[in-house]
Amino acid sequence: MSEQDPGLSLREAREAAGLSQKDVADSLNLLVSNVEAIEANNFRHLNADIFVRGYIRSYARFLNLEPQPLLDAAERQLRDKSPSTDSEVQPKTVSPIKPQHKILAALVIAGVLWAIAVVVMAPDAEADAGQAAITEAHEA
What we know:
Layout: H1 6-16, H2 21-28, H3 32-39, H4 49-62, H5 67-79, H6 99-121, H7 125-139
């Protein structure tokens, strides 16, 4: 296990356990791209440093490794964030909002606007009857 390279240590332990990246991702409820990023020490892909720490801790515990040495090594890398680590291929990012949710939101908004239009534009039957009575009274 390399204390200087937490991603390599996790990858080696995963491979020794006979697990794929998908197995780890499914067990930890992560995206496979997040597992790939952890193993490549590409922590910028994971956005917030707190996520990096949590993912490494969970990944290490899943593989029955002591998380603290890996966290210490990752912490050093997070402090030394250098642009040169971004020369690796960036995994595809996924929008946090699912397309189905966007469509549902649009339909709800359209329904609300339609309901408002019906209420505002609908003729008021009592007002029309009262207006007709006033008109007849003036004509007589």
